[in-house]
Amino acid sequence: MLDNEKFTEIELNSIMLSCYPRGATPSSADESAEDIPSQLPRESAVPKTSKLQQKLLDKYMMYAGIPPKKRPRIPRMKGSQIMLKKVQEVNEIIQQNLPTIAKIEEVVDLVYAGAITVCVELGVKITDSVKPMRKETPPPWKKRLQEKIKNIRKNIGILHTYLNTETPSSRVGKRTRQIASEFKIKSHDHHFRQRVIEICDRLKQKIKALGSRIQRYNERVKRYKNNQLYYKNKQKFFRQLEHETSDQDNSPAEEAMYAFWKNIWGEEKVHDDEAHRIREVEADSARYQMNEVEITEDDIKLALKKTNNWSAPGVDGIQNYWWKQFTTTHGLLAGFFQAALRDPSMLPDVFTLGVSYMLPKENNTVDPKKYRPITCLPTIYKILTGVLTRHIWKHVNKNNILAQEQSGCRGDARGCNELLITDYIITK
Question: In the 8-state DSSP scheme, what is residue 37?
Fold first, then answer.
């Protein structure tokens, strides 16, 4: 089992600690009983695992080697001092297990196990699948007010029928007297008709007051939802402000969506690699010699600094937040990334496996053509490409390779805005 590498170093270390919790080691039969105590390590010399460390090792052995798609989803969490303290404790435990890491996949598994451990410690429920979105139903208080408004309108209709009919029916007259009695008005009153007009006006004012209440509650709920949406998804929040919301219930059939995008993604395109412009660019690039890239721990930190904590992860399911907080892995990541530059084959294929989401471009969500795909790649791959992009841009800016007029593919540029402004000025 050891020769076939059935267990990782962390698993073997955990098994060893569980087998000899008090420092007892097996002795050979030919050793005398008097020699055994001198050869055994002292109890205090044996490393003791804390409950948190044992939980981390358990989660690691539970999920290590499992395909990322089959792992439970790490939920998005709200920051707090308790959470930060727990993350720091797990970060220190991860540092103790880093010397046994031999592959970059094991780093990903360890970070995933650390994130799951923090969630379990904070009492967050871990689910194996994403819960389906529930249909929004009006709250009980809103239902009560709406029912009250409905009944008042019904009474107003009866009173209007009584007032606008010369000979109202016995049923309308009986119901009118019942409504009047609720306001302590007797039917034999000489000014009964005038009293009914006053009751009708009072009921209208009551409807207006109840409608204002519902409006105030709706505005309050809307503010609360907007605050939550701004915290979770800023892009969707601003799209809603621009009234670009769409009806997600009218989504196209799965077969239609698959058939349309298969014609785009499923067909292999043949490109002319010997094009004249490509040869010109290759000849021109020979004039600029790029220095050898040295990836350091600071590069990892800078690449993570620009990322959003809780942006949608790829198939690995690990958000940027966990890579930011588990700082003890940054040095090891830098070493693995440096080795990957020399031998790219050491990176597993799952690192470039993406999850594509279809976002509607218009309110017409039935047509598959009206969607735009967004592919989320694994976070660790985005860290690597972010580090390489930074080094490439240093080389490009140092040698002024890009023309000043080019705004596309340039960092900290707003090419679309500049083109729109230019077009507006020209056509004005």
Answer: H
- Judged by average pLDDT, the poorest of 68-72, 145-149, 335-339 is 68-72
Strand partners, 356: 375
Distance CA 238, CA 243 (A): 9
| Distance from C-alpha of 205 to C-alpha of 130, rounded to nearest angstrom | 47
Residue 369 DSSP code: G
Closest to 328 in 3D by CA, of 97, 115, 84: 97
Helix runs in 1-80, H state only:
9-19, 36-39, 51-63
User: What gap in Å lies between CA 228 and CA 146, rounded to an integer?
Assistant: 26
CB 190 within 8 A of CB 173: no
Torsion of CA 349, 375, 337, 322, to 10 degrees: -110
How many Cα neighbours within 13 Å face the side chain of 157?
6
pLDDT at 43 over 60: no
* More confident call, 29 vs 158: 158
Residue 368: name the closest of 235, 288, 255 by CA: 255
pTM: 0.66
| Close Cβ partners of 59 (under 8 Å, ≥ 6 residues apart) | 113, 114, 116, 117, 120
Q: How far apart are CA 14 and CA 43, in angstroms?
A: 17
**Phi (first) and psi of residue 49, to 5 degrees:** -90, 135
